[in-house]
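Moderator note: this is an archived Q&A kept for reference. The question asked for a predicted structure of one protein chain; the sequence and the answer are reproduced below.
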Amino acid sequence: MSPSPAAPSPGLLSPEHIEMIDRGVSVIVSSRDAALRPSLMRAVGSRINADGTEITVYLARSQSKQLLQDLASCGRIAVVFSSPSTHRSVQVKGTGINGRAATADDLPLLMRYRQAMEYEICSIGYRLEFLHAMLAFELEDLVAISFTPAQAFDQTPGPKAGSQIVQGAPA
């Protein structure tokens, strides 16, 4: 994927949003093609830097061909981070997309993500086997997609659902 120019948005996400994303919650990645047809896939891991100006999601290439093609052609990404145990959710839209092959250096992060999701999924009554099947991957099949957040929206069910998150506002 070729990089797209994007100005960082420091402070777009509050410390609470960054902590939620960093903790390891459900991650759904989406984009669209030129005809505006959506494509989406569950990520098997994610990372956010400390100031929230870069997010990385991990996708299985073999399951995400259309999504990866759409990311490369339109340069836009939308990712929903949602806590299964509380339904607290935030959607982050971004540009400045870069892709790279995942490496063994990514494994500790991916395992930390899986452990966090084990807690989330098991706390609502699902078995570990379900989670392990849902997040199964082969390292050589993974691609790490990094992007710069440009907009964020509260997607938690309730009166604020769909409202844009104001830069620097508390969660």
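Archived answer notes: DSSP finds four helices and seven strands in the chain.
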